């Protein structure tokens, strides 16, 4: 189940990233292009054009998503990397979302310093809270709480990437200043969103864990990540195969990697915290909250953590991102 959660997070992050790009293209395009070029020239040869192409893509789906879907070919691919099989619910849900661009307050910051806060146990007792809160844009994922962990992880959240099984449903966690980026992995996820926005009873059929039964956020705080971004991260940045043998679970990127990719596109400077997984230390805390241990992640068949860690190591070694933990 956690596997799915992670996947969801990654997707959400990526969506965010696209949205930002789209809305802020005018102010950030030079920086984005430069940093991508530098990054790709040393780390990801041949992927320059991909990332540049991505900066032309709307990160969040709008109610006219079918047009872009057709241009990108997303309409010919099933969820989660396309929109096919979700259309009838997307049509309903996206009409109910009043916004599909970047929040005003961050759109206007010309030189954005961003931090992507992972949920890793390395943040326990880190006392990084004040530092994290000092960034212009703070990206968090899934149900990684702020409440009760402010000293270590801060209290502000600009974007939160999540999916139906990982979105907060307890209004204790409500933050009016957060924009939630939803990653849709299956038709049921889109159905779930449309039911919530129509104030209908939510069907819990088809979920790997009970999804949120109510929305604590206002519709203007919600965005839907463009599935094309997930496809790019999975197939072009992480080089995951598109087909897996029947005996193997298909690999999806974690929310963390999606969030970092998003940040690289929208920010002038990207720092990360809470992204260390030591898979050989199975007894260590998986998250900065709760009691799960690393063994949960080590058993995760839906992610390829080692491939992601190599990608991340490259980004850090080439100073494309700075690691705070
Ligand atoms: C980027 O876009 C160009 C033109 O639209 C296309 O020829 C090229 O294949 C794309 N590159 C990638 C990596 O998708
Ligand atoms: C952002 O900038 C636009 C135009 O540059 C301006 O109209 C708008 O009021 C600004 N918004 C904020 C929140 O500063
Ligand atoms: C964090 O600090 C508390 C109190 O100082 C201590 O009891 C706990 O063991 C520490 N946790 C870690 C993971 O270091
Ligand atoms: C939301 O932002 C406003 C304006 O910056 C601020 O006054 C308020 O305290 C913030 N609310 C929360 C819950 O962080
Ligand atoms: C991971 O954990 C193992 C066992 O606790 C330890 O020996 C190793 O040094 C750790 N690796 C890193 C990179 O922290
Ligand atoms: C992990 O925890 C279990 C039970 O708490 C303990 O038996 C085991 O020795 C621990 N292993 C390591 C490597 O610390
Ligand atoms: C974690 O374990 C502690 C001690 O066993 C327990 O008090 C606490 O309720 C657990 N937390 C969660 C989220 O399960
Ligand atoms: C994970 O990715 C690495 C590097 O791309 C690859 O060598 C490995 O076979 C992958 N593992 C799985 C289980 O897919």
From TrEMBL:
It is found in: Golgi apparatus membrane. The keyword DNA damage does not apply. Its EC number is 2.4.3.6. GO terms for molecular function: N-acetyllactosaminide alpha-2,3-sialyltransferase activity. Its main location: Golgi. It comes from the Eukaryota. GO terms for biological process: glycolipid biosynthetic process. Pfam families: Glyco_transf_29. It is a single-pass type II membrane protein. Transfers the sialyl residue from CMP-N-acetyl-beta-neuraminate to the terminal galactose residue on sugar chains of glycoproteins and glycolipids. It's alpha-2,3-sialyltransferase activity is specific toward type II glycan chains (Galbeta1-4GlcNAc) on glycoproteins and glycolipids such as neolactosides nLc4Cer and nLc6Cer, whose sialyl-products serve as precursors for the Lewis X antigen. Critically involved in the synthesis of functional selectin ligands needed for neutrophil recruitment during inflammation and lymphocyte homing to the lymph nodes. Belongs to the glycosyltransferase 29 family. This is Type 2 lactosamine alpha-2,3-sialyltransferase. It comes from Engystomops pustulosus (Tungara frog).
């Amino acid at each position: 189940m956690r596997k799915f959660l992670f996947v969801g997070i990654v997707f959400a992050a990526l969506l965010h990233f696209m949205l930002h790009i789209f809305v802020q293209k005018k102010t950030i395009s030079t920086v984005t292009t430069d940093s991508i070029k530098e990054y790709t020239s040393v780390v990801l040869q041949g992927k320059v054009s991909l990332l540049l192409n991505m900066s032309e893509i709307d990160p969040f789906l709008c109610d006219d998503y079918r047009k872009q879907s057709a241009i990108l070919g997303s309409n010919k691919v099933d969820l989660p990397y396309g929109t096919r099989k979700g259309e009838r619910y997307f049509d309903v849900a996206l009409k109910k979302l009043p916004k599909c661009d970047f929040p005003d307050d961050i759109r206007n910051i010309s030189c954005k310093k961003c931090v992507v806060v992972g949920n890793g146990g390395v943040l326990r007792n880190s006392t990084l809270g004040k530092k994290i809160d000092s960034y212009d844009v703070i990206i968090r994922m899934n149900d990684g709480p702020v409440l009760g962990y402010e000293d270590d992880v801060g209290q502000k959240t600009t974007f939160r990437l999540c999916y139906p099984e990982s979105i907060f449903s307890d209004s204790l966690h409500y933050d009016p200043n957060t924009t939630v980026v939803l990653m849709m992995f299956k038709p049921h996820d889109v159905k779930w969103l449309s039911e919530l926005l129509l104030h209908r009873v939510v069907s819990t059929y088809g979920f790997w864990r009970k999804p949120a039964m109510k929305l604590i956020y206002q519709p203007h705080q919600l965005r839907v990540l463009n599935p094309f971004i997930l496809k790019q991260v999975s197939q072009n940045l992480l080089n995951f195969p598109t087909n897996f043998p029947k005996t193997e679970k298909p690999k999806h990127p974690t929310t963390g990697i999606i969030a970092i990719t998003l940040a690289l596109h929208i920010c002038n400077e990207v720092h990360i915290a809470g992204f260390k997984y030591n898979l050989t230390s199975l007894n260590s805390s998986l998250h900065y909250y709760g009691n799960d241990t690393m063994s949960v992640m080590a058993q995760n068949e839906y992610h390829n953590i080692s491939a992601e860690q190599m990608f991340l190591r490259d980004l850090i070694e080439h100073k494309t991102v700075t690691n705070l933990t």
